Amino acid sequence: MSDILRLDHVSYAYPGGRPVLRDVSLAVTAGRSIGLVGQSGSGKSTILKLLLGLMRPQTGDVLFDGARLDLSDRQMMRTYRKSVQAVFQDPYASLDPRQKVQAIVSEPLRALGIGGDRRAMVVAALRSVGLDGDILDRYPAAFSGGQRQRIAIARAIVAGPRVVLADEAVSALDLTTKVRVVDLFRDLARKTTLLFVSHDLGVVASLCDEIVILEGGRIVETGPTRAVLAAPAHAYTQQLLASVPRLPDFLAGASSP
Ligand SMILES: Nc1ncnc2c1ncn2[C@@H]1O[C@H](COP(=O)(O)OP(=O)(O)OP(=O)(O)O)[C@@H](O)[C@H]1O
After folding, report:
1. Top-level CATH class of 3-92+164-251?
2. Which residues form the ABC transporter domain (predicted)?
3. Which residue among 7, 10, 11, 20 has the greatest number of ligand 1 atoms within 8 angstroms of its CB, and so is best to mutate?
4. What pTM was computed for the model?
């Protein structure tokens, strides 16, 4: 198995601030779903911004297919954008209210110059997230939060990425909708590689093969999700686990959290 994305001994401080990531190394490996868990402020979104090439680390490297991610290398960034797509927390903010569904979902196809029957590709992406192809001419305002997040996922997968990065992608949804969208991410994790960032240990436990626990900008524990959660070695992981009372039943195979 190969690492598609990798952080190698990365430290990061926002301009004028103290370090918010310290010596972080993690790999997004083809075919594995990885959950990044930590409390608010632990540095999860900062890791995602570095993996998305939105900023550079002060020390360490961000690697894409084994090569250092170089924002000035147009060829590399084109391949990168085709390979890596993201879904963000707030579907109300991440979808342009002035654009119709067709324009929103086809945006990566246009940006990457992918030809062919774009309409058919958009319809196929919408169907794969459980939406009808007849919504192409509607605006985001016509949809619920869960439907909007499905539209955002359709946009992320329409160009056939190798990795989907999801940042708190179910946190803004009500419980019933959240369960359905988590099911959708589970399907997605079978077809592609997923990095799922969440403060919700229960969701990550039900979704991810591997788990990375982040505390105060440092990785305190990592490994196969079930193994880590069945026998957490670090006090912080134990504390996170204690906040999800039903998780031990789930890990024992009794029910979903
Ligand atoms: N643009 C910024 N400028 C300065 N400091 C920032 C900025 N963005 C985040 N931080 C700080 O960096 C640290 C890590 O923030 P980050 O958003 O990565 O955490 P997080 O784990 O994603 O939190 P949350 O779950 O609340 O989104 C926090 O102390 C935060 O205040």
Report:
1. alpha beta
2. 5-241
3. 20
4. 0.90
